[in-house]
Batch of 4 targets.
Target 1
Amino acid sequence: MITKVKKIDAESLAEAKEIILSGGVVAFPTETVYGLGASAFDDGAVKSIFDIKGRPNDNPLIAHVYDGYDLSRIVDADPPYAAALRRAFLPGPLTLVYPSRGKVSPRVSCGLDTLAVRVPSHPGAQAFLRAVGIPVVAPSANLSKHVSPTSAKHVLDDFDGKIPLILDGGECSGGIESTVCDVTGEYPVVLRPGLVTREMIAKAAGRCEASAETVRPGERAKSPGMMYKHYSPRCRTMLFPVGDRAGAEAAYEREKAAGSRAFLLGEEKLAKAWNARGMSAFSLGNTPGEMAARLYGLLREAERRADVLIAVEPAGDGGVMTGVKNRLKKACASEDIPH
């Protein structure tokens, strides 16, 4: 199979529509990361997403719809606070998990009675979804557990020869996946942190709680991104806690002495100090927003240039930083199931 990468225009959208409605798979941009999309109603197409990615069959998918799509076609209950969240944040990087009407393929939610739905704000995503006209289920367009893609090139690196079309919408601005929020109960519960923060949701809905960020052995994930190891570069990784600069530097020196290509990763002030001392370092940036936007690109750069990436957790808690730390910890995790 030849994988075509095309800018988003009338011709490529028509081709994408034909592929999707014929049971195929198309990669497309969102404001967070690129997605690997297929018809939500086609069992075979949904199965092909799991097969192409090597994705575990207990990790549910998100249905993407255009702005204004009638959600009552696919979800069964819509509490008033969910409507308030849609008004406040959609289109945007927020996924809401509703009770499902059972209209989509059962493979989408891996047998659960819920359905995760998202309305991306990226104009290319909206154009694609409107052209197709149906819900498109899509995980991130990367091989399972690999670093999520924020450019068409990242998608091509993982899926060249495996999918027919990548719609190129440029670099993603958000950089980490959407916040996932369960709206099946009396109040919203964040299942996966992201750019729409728990604090923002609580302000709009009156209350919001956060669930555990990973599933335990025997539990079933209600949201993507809840496995222990995820978003991982193809090099060894180490993660040191906030403030343990000395530990990271000692590890760096050990790795260099052993002949490894070692790189450090930290917030801007640390990276500048390391580089000034002749150490190889990547800068996450200064603000949580910068760190979110840059993280995945840096992880992919690290796997290209390093044998080992030694990261120091950035300072700060809450807000967008919750999502940044969530992704960094999962990228550097050593096991799917802790011992």
Target 2
Amino acid sequence: MKKVFIDGSAGTTGLRIYDRIREREDIELMTIAPELRKDLEERKRLINASDITFLCLPDEASKESVSLVENEDVVILDTSTAHRTADGWAYGFPELSAKHREAIVKGKRIAVPGCHASGFISLVYPLIAGGILAPDYPLAAFSLTGYSGGGKGMIAAYEAEDKAEEFFSPRQYGIAQQHKHLPEMRKVCGLTRTPLFSPIVDDYYSGMLVTVPLHADLMQKKMGVASLREYYADFYAGSLFVSVAPEEDAHQASGFLAGNTLSGKDSMRIYVTGNDERILVASQFDNLGKGASGAAMQCMNLVMGCEETKGLFL
């Protein structure tokens, strides 16, 4: 039985992890008294007494928690942005390659991917790794998310009875092109040009749809819709969490892809649509699932050597 501590269990991601693992028979969940949540010495004691600690904290608080680690055997799973591009940290997306999976299984420091970044990387990493796109391809992406991705403050704003009229409409943000997920999107994919990125939050609780448009004539390896779909299917063959939708799936939805289709799930579905000149690749998942707590728990399962899907919903 593994001892697990969640540092920051009062936040959206921490609460979801807590709810999912508290009934597991292979985990002893270590808890902190509410009045001691910000007590440095108590947090230090629990972190070092654990086998696995989840950090569900703002960036600076996550860095502080890592500095408290004295027990070299403790595995840290950080859900913040703080360590996603840091040297010595495994990136928690095992489907990308055997090397990524091995780094998670053997790692003591694991950075859980960001939600927007998960969708972008699931689409772009295979294209760069396979030489289909050059690292300097002028990439752009749109990302539609439910409001739960903004944490407690945004959830409260969207669920308020007197919310402003603008909250009933999709709202684009990150307009200064400085979104915090951009560094990991660029580094993990091996890009030499930072993507143009347009995240959009809408009036629904959870679910995400990240779309990347591609010009076929700018590809290093010329591929059409059918051949690119087949490439993704081969790349993710054997994955328990990432699947590639057949052509008819998009048509059965009357040509629409919804952001909330996989809400409540920990899986991810990739679509390849458009035509052989202008291709759209899209990644559909739950920002709280494969985009946050689900990905964190998948990494924990790999560290523990148990069934990868244990406690998760596909």
Target 3
Amino acid sequence: MTKSESKYFNTARRMDEAFLALMEQKEFEYITVTEICKKAGVNRSTFYLHYETIGDLLTECVEQMNQQFLLYFKETIPEFRQRIGTASLEQLFLITPEYLIPYLTYIAEQKTVFKVVLANPEVMQTSKTYDFMFGDILDQILARYHVPEQERSYMLAFYIEGVMGIVKRWLRSDCKDPVEDIAKIIMCVIRR
């Protein structure tokens, strides 16, 4: 990375941090480019060099969060994928404390951004993120349970929306209930 590339990415990081700090103070809809620039110590022209809109900045923040989150699963997901074909049906649960606790902890730590993302799912294309994170694995699990292929997308939608419904409700309460309690509720509902 050259010095100018490093400066470019450092400036983008400062704007990301400024934006996230502002989201702690006020709702997304009321944050302005001027406020972001002032907090990040950059000019408006610098903002527009990086982004067309504040929505683009939010998209970048979410992408970075997803990358950070997926780093945790970098080692465990491939191992789990390998086990899908050979594990007993009782062992084919992705919704276990091993996977769920880090996911919920991460959401609680980043709750301000997740609230904005969940309030604007079409803008943020969250369905693509969840399809990427869950669809491939869950589809293979449903195949092992001999669920017909034409029914799987409906079951996946129900499964993912159900989990996200619990997460949304938890976020609306500002993640006041302990992570372990929410994980227990999700696991109970999914396993029934």
Target 4
Amino acid sequence: MSAILQSLRDILYTLPCILLALTVHEVAHGWMAMKLGDPTARNLGRLTLNPLKHLDPVGTICMVFFHFGWARPVPINTRYFKKPRRDMALSALAGPVSNICMGFLGVLLFQIFLTVFQAHPAQGFSFNIQLSVLTLLQYFYSLNISLAVFNLIPIPPLDGSRIFLTFLPPRYYFGIMQYERYIQFGLMLCLYIGLLDKPLRFLVNGLATLIFRLVELLPFI
């Protein structure tokens, strides 16, 4: 029974963090594309913080259980771009960058609240509230950092492929992208069997350590 309660507790903390992380991630893609001349996401109502407009069922489930996943991609029409390859890479990069920024914000808030709570320790119900706030912030920054790292992998359909593959000659780019569905299935399989666990954990821990060190440099922490 305790294992079931722990799983439910994890989902309660994870779900709101996932909804916000994935939503901001996709809005960042659409916002950057719009700034570069493509109004497609705005015209289709995708520049919204309503998570129902962005969630991909499989990607969300992967986020809940593996802490790595994806949302429903924001449509981008490269014909609006002045420099299609460069602007596509920038639009793709905007998503992971937004998650790194939210990860930084999460770490900053975690450190601030931790300092405040240590200075004013509570007991009983108030202590449970303090612990819940810190736990929620831990989930928030860790999920955002994980999402950023995962999406920077240069494998379709992840953002990293849009960044890396745009530097390839078009015939190679389209040659790879035509197998996107098969590559996506292979990626899910690798996640399921844990093949990517160690390298992803190494990269996530490295980025988290860097963010913590940057936050510690702030004069008010």
